[in-house]
Records
---
Amino acid sequence: MKHTVGPYRFWILGILLVLILAEIAWSWRNDKKAYEIKETFSNLAVLTGFHLSKVLFTGYQLAVLGFFTEIAPFTFPNNAWVFLLTFITTDFIYYWFHRLSHIWKPLWAFHMVHHSAMHMNLTAAYRLNWLSAIISPLFFIPAALMGMPADFIAISYALNLVYQFFLHTEAVDKIGWLEGIIDTPSAHRVHHGSNPLYIDKNFGGVLITWDKLFKTYQPETEKVNYGLTNGSLGYNPFKLVFKGFADLFTGKMKLKS
């Protein structure tokens, strides 16, 4: 995977930067106030820490998946159909991983930082916990035991997260018949809402059909209020990343807080 993605990493980062600058221009021209300076720099600080954590944990993640792939009763061949099956399976597992992260306090401790952003924009997409890589591969062990190649699982999960980058924006309105089939910016805005109507809705990564199937789908019908239900956590990236753990271990943890 390193040799596949590595040569294009800087191109990918360049494209993401151009998209962020374009969204900033759109927000300014249309007076959307989608960006707030302190929060934007806070998001970028969290992103930097997340990328550093990937350097530390990528080997561990692949080792976990590789170990369970090795002990699987059989292994699927590396071909396009198997990759498609792996991608769909990974997306299904992500739905449940994401959903559990909202209803089980130990997982919410990892995930809370992502929902603490008070503005919806592309820089908020990677407001991710620096330690999340410790637990994420554990949820994909069933796919490895089913014989799906470890590199296919890793690439599928990576593509899932890259796709979700594009969902964190107010610049894209509803996109017609695709709503209710794939996750869209509109559906994901709902997921980030602290409105009572929107809490614990739309957990899908790429496909929103899982939410339709398991009754957690909610279309965007009212203005979204972003952030946690108890307001802002401030701008300190260390506080943002570790506040969930502090609340968990001191007994102050409240789901959706």
---
Amino acid sequence: MALAIGGIGLETGFCQVKPLISDVFTADPSAHVFNGKIYIYPSHDIEANVPQDDEGGHFNMRDYHVYSMDAIGGKVTDHGVALDLKDIPWAGRQLWAPDAAFKNGTYYLYFPVKDKEDVFRIGVATSQSPAGPFKAEPKPIPGSYSIDPAVFTDTDGQGYMYFGGIWGGQLQRWHSGKYDKSLSTDLGKGHEREPALSAKVAKMSGDMLSFAEAPRDVQILDEHGKPLLGGDHDRRFFEGAWLHKYNGKYYFSYSTGDTHLLCYAESNSPYGPFTYKGVIMKPVEGWTTHHSIIEFKGKWYIFYHDTEISGKTHLRNVKVRELVRSADGKIQTITP
């Protein structure tokens, strides 16, 4: 069915950008171009009547819809439920931000969800259509943990998954290599001057269903080549990783979480290390921020969310606007 038409502002200062979808709440939009169309894989926010907490218990989502657009500013089509919590054999609760990929005729939907022991793992489901429906594999990806999978396919066809999120995303609980439930947010006092917790990256197997290697750290360095520190909340990684490639360079972008910024860093390798470059987007209305970046018909766009419709941090709406760069590739900061 046809949904709301989203407006888009082409400048980087303030402008009015309308929600793309208005009949349900959507967030964490993972956008991809498949078969000449834009497909969006967002979270589906619901009012679950769960009290708000630092672990995100109030984000108690239960299914995914897939949306498509033929053009920026055109109508958005809802393809219905692509995957439901009840159809994932190993899942417990909280179907958080997904991503998608395509290889050898198959479409893959990657999703984080807590298992029956309340530990976040990352699962994968497959379909012959980018719109789904998707069928989940019977078990999570071996060796996976935490949240926010983002799968980047390089120009040579090799896939890489970037993942992780602290606080409710549980990344801090894996700091020692084993799950430690006692670590609820960051690593705690005394760690502010130590290197910040890192997102993870792993090369994908040929069939895109598993990791081809043990996940490694995505290191973000400052302008002096030193790792960003845990106390640097304006620049350190929190969640919402995304990777795109522009003019041969790899751009790793992410959310800073409790300071509500979208930032980015650059590298000559998909593994990094990445050097911090700046802020992509200043805080939106609402606590969370999560995005994706794509090229479509010669222009670059950023998909993101805010809470314009509901005014509630757990009931969000997806938006899109053009991403503008300087001649040297520097991304111009957006004021939403």
---
Amino acid sequence: MVQVLIIDDDPAIQLLLKRTLKSEGYDLTVASDGEAGLIQAQELSPALVICDWIMPRMNGLEVCRRIKATPELSTTFFILLTSMGSVDDRVKGLDAGADDFLCKPIEMNELKARVRSGLRLHQLSRDLKQQKQLLEDELAEAAEYVCSILPSPLCDPPVTIDSRFIPSRQLGGDGFDYYWLDKDHLVIYLLDVAGHGLRAALPSLSVMNLLKNQVMAKINYYQPSDVLKGLNETFQMTQRNDKYFTIWYGVYNRIKRTLVYASAGHPPAVLISAKAPFFTQVKRLKTPGLPVGMFPDVEFTDDFCEVEKSSTLYIFSDGIYEINQPDGNIWGLDAFVQLLTSCRDKSESNLDRVLRSVQLVNPKDYFDDDLSLLQINFP
């Protein structure tokens, strides 16, 4: 049976409401003041509450505020019973969280109709809450799966790699990988599919599987621009697929200590090297190129650089620096590069230190976008 709670200090009103609603088949509970009613609401989690405005100990507005502030009672429909009919009074009730009003003297047919309407809205709210929870659970499972297929850290020279991945509450399209093409050439890439949810995560997984298995025909996986060209031909946007992605892709030659790279609309990688005891060189590694899938026949170009000893390369998605600030500005890439430079530690991975610093500039307790960060150390 549907649980309905009546909170009113007038015995006559209590009796009237009980008799009328009992005949409709509802399971009724009655409280004679606001404090007792709030206790009953917390114990019973009723579908609907009918509460008088003016009562001793705790008035109806305060009862309404507290019920609406309780997560377990968020779908409870609240009808405020009042003899005050002014607009200002109704505004106060709505601000307190009331869902509907019933004016004294009570008209029985109107009472029944408002209760039926309130219970329908309560059920819709419960269904919506359940669907929202199912969706959040599915996204959490998807994020857990993405984390499970990301590569483990590389801990042994000639190159060591550490990484961090923090999915947003909506799950985005970040993905990355690193592996040896042969004993001398290391592939490192990071991609970010536009949008959020499974429609962004699934293309990211497809790209990662495609690159890992090297199944694109006639592609030179040692040449980053050729890889991006192949991806652009494979993942073109269509009317059914509106997703494109940015990517940074590089190949490191451990013998020559050179890094060949290309990017497609992605933030620059940052190479930090100590040229002298008191001088740090910072290079932003990026090539021209539109995001993959946006247009056909896009040209991608390679660039290369020498990698000095004791250098560190950082590759990341834009979610790590596009953080909205309370003043309306975005924290930004320049500030993040400065943070990387100041946090760099040659003796050990410092990604946790970097992330702690990033979290300090984030006014929220979560990130609006996926956050991916790779640290590649070249001894």
